[in-house]
């Protein structure tokens, strides 16, 4: 049923639960799994960032992906990781889903942005609305 799974993570509690759900589903279906992190800096600030800050953002993304991949240490499934930069999370998730031929997206219900107190965060809601494949939202 599922051959290629994309799990979006930002390191939040909900996102790490999404990674665990992805691990279970990938194991059950013997599917490929890719863990994705998108670091985004709004265009109005991008030119003002010093190179060391840009690298720190990338390093943080790599750390989050490493922590997510570590959840597979005792699994027969070995995830791929993908770090995106300078692209809104929902845009990157949707583009990767389409270009990578994924047939399931798994995402946490809310990420690290605590300013949004909705049942679903803005990123997960946009992915649900625009994705051409099933989306599993994990609380």
Structural overview:
This protein is α/β, with parallel strands linked by helices. The chain has one domain (4-138): HUPs (Rossmann fold, 3-Layer(aba) Sandwich). It has 5 helices and 5 strands; from the N terminus they run βαβααβαβαβ. It has helices at residues 13-29, 43-46, 51-70, 89-100, 122-130; strands spanning 4-8, 32-39, 80-85, 104-108, 135-138. A 5-stranded parallel β-sheet has the order 3-2-1-4-5, with helices on both faces. Helix 4 packs parallel to helix 5.
How would you summarize what this structure contains?
The protein is of the alpha/beta class. The chain is 45% helix and 20% strand. The protein is built from five helices and five strands.
Low-confidence blocks of residues: none
Name of the top-level CATH class: Alpha Beta
Rg result? 15 Å
Shape: globular
Tell me the domain tally.
1
**Counting H and I runs of at least 4 residues, what is the number of helices?**
5
**Span between termini:** 23 Å
Write the layout of secondary structure elements.
Layout (H helix, E strand, L loop, with lengths): L3 E5 L4 H17 L2 E8 L3 H4 L4 H20 L9 E6 L3 H12 L3 E5 L13 H9 L4 E4 L1
Parallel strand pairs: 1-2, 1-4, 2-3, 4-5
Which keywords apply here?
single chain; 139 residues; alpha/beta; Rossmann fold; 5-stranded parallel beta sheet; 5 helices; 20% strand; globular
């Amino acid at each position: 049923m599922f051959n290629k799974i994309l799990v979006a993570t930002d390191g939040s509690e909900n996102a790490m639960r999404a990674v665990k759900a992805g691990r279970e589903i990938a194991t059950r279906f013997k599917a490929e799994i890719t863990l994705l992190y998108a670091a985004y800096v709004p265009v109005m600030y991008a030119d003002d960032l010093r190179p060391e800050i840009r690298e720190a953002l990338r390093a943080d993304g790599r750390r989050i992906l490493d922590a997510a991949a570590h959840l597979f240490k005792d699994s027969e499934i070995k995830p791929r990781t993908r770090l995106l930069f300078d692209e809104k999370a929902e845009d990157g998730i949707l583009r990767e889903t389409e270009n990578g031929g994924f047939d399931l997206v798994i995402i946490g219900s809310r990420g690290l942005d605590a300013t949004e107190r909705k049942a679903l965060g803005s990123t997960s809601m946009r992915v649900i609305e625009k994705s051409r494949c099933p989306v599993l939202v994990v609380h």
